[in-house]
Amino acid sequence: MRLRTALLASLGLATAVQLTHPVLPEAAGYALSDVIIALASGYAAVNYRRRARDTANAPRIRLAFGLGASAGAAWSASNVLFLLGVLGVSWVAAPAVVLSTVAAVLVPLAMVLAGPRLRGIAAARQLIDVAAVSGAFFALVRAFAPVGAGQSAFTGYAMTIVVVLGCGAAVALVTLATSEPGRGVSAQQLLAFAALVQAITLLISMRNSVAGQAWWADGVGGGYVLGALVMAVSSRLAVSRPGVDGVERLVFSPWALLPYVPVATAVGVAAARQLTDGELPPVLVWLLLSSFSLVLLRQFLTLVTVGRLTVTLEEQRTALAYQAHHDPLTGLLNRAAFDSRAAALLTAGYLEACAIVIDLDGFKPVNDTLGHAAGDEVLVTVAHRLTAELRGTDLVCRCGGDEFAVLMIDAGPRAGVVAGRLLRRISQPMVVQGRPVKVGGSVGVAVTRRGERVGVSALLRQADTAMYAAKAAGKGTIRRYASATA
């Protein structure tokens, strides 16, 4: 609420100044604007200097605040000199222009430093945006303030600062475009807005000069004041960071469209001039072509970025799906995925289904003597051996600990043969951490009869019962569930 009040008060004061200029003598109008701008930018310089000395801020942010303080001080000093010029001091014009130019250079530098260090495509996209907006700005300058005999707007103060302020406006617009909505207004956002106001005001001022209008006409008198007041408000705000590149922010965010506004405006102005004059100056045509080419290049880089984001998102989705259905250690199906897929197979009308439950024998001594890392290596080796002995259509999972489960469809008389082969395979010696290790297994088998409908849980319980019978019989053996046919 305090920020909104300050901005509304700034707008109200700037409007009041603009409405006052027509009734004031020209010198008084200049003096009024110079005093307000000097006070506002001086206030900003004091606040930015205080924050630049705050060690809680990162060095890069402190440097940004320091540049903001220097810009505010230079702008305040330049307007004090302009005020002295209004009062009759003749030598102040040149140093006032120099100080204004210094302020115009420091503001975009402060905005760049306040943001993150961009790399790769993001950095290239930002540079292209700045170049495209700069080209559009200079095209607007060329269209609004043509240079002709006795009509040159590029004299004095405007000649000195137009290029610098145009580049600063481009940086400001790109800074606003990289902002993330919903995070509140930040110092660099308001500073960028202030720079944009100054650039637009200068553009209108140049047009007024060409058209022979009063210097304060078309909002120029209030524009400079509004820019200074907004800069003062920005000095009280925190610095924010742009959001992470995402498809929504890059493509659908209204902020992402900001760099195209000056390009579209320049095209519209050029089209209107073509309709009026019947021709366009070559310089204006080349500026528009350059801006359009940069916009196309920027769109290509955005497409590349979105493509990379899409690939990354798909890889993450695949990885998450794999993690949700597989045991993180062995890579086998986890129990939930095994049950889900087994239930689908059992309800598909197959003739027979065979469940095999295997519990490792001798696994605990490996964990106790060699450690859990060795135990994990044993489990991974067993998982690989089981997978190697089964068909691609068979399901195998790690139920937990050192217990594994297998489901075979239409195995028929092969069930007992496969169970024996699995037991022999996992019982083969293996080398773990440079030491020979041998584990065995107790195997339980449960087979459904033809046409019999048995749920996954019931079938695994039967195989589990048979596995415990195998353990009771001395381990390293195979047992079938008593009520099932072998």
Architecture overview:
This protein is an alpha+beta fold. It has 2 domains: 2-314; 335-480, Reverse transcriptase/Diguanylate cyclase domain (Alpha-Beta Plaits, 2-Layer Sandwich). Helices cover 66% and strands 8% of the residues. The chain contains 16 helices and 7 strands. The chain has helices at 2-20, 26-52, 59-86, 93-114, 120-144, 156-177, 187-211, 220-234, 247-252, 260-277, 282-325, 335-346, 363-370, 372-389, 414-426, 456-472, and strands spanning 353-361, 395-400, 403-409, 430-432, 435-437, 440-447, 478-480. Helix 16 (456-472) links the parallel strand 6 (440-447) and strand 7 (478-480). Helix 6 runs antiparallel to helix 7 (187-211). It is elongated. Mean pLDDT is 81; it is low at 147-156 and 243-248.
List the helices and strands and how they pair.
Blueprint (H helix, E strand, L loop, with lengths): L1 H19 L5 H27 L6 H28 L6 H22 L5 H25 L11 H22 L9 H25 L8 H15 L12 H6 L7 H18 L4 H44 L9 H12 L6 E9 L1 H8 L1 H18 L5 E6 L2 E7 L4 H13 L3 E3 L2 E3 L2 E8 L8 H17 L5 E3 L6
Parallel strand pairs: 6-7
Antiparallel strand pairs: 1-3, 1-6, 2-3, 4-5
Helix pairs in contact: 1-8, 2-3, 2-8, 3-4, 4-6, 4-7, 5-6, 5-10, 5-11, 6-7, 7-8, 10-11, 13-14, 14-15
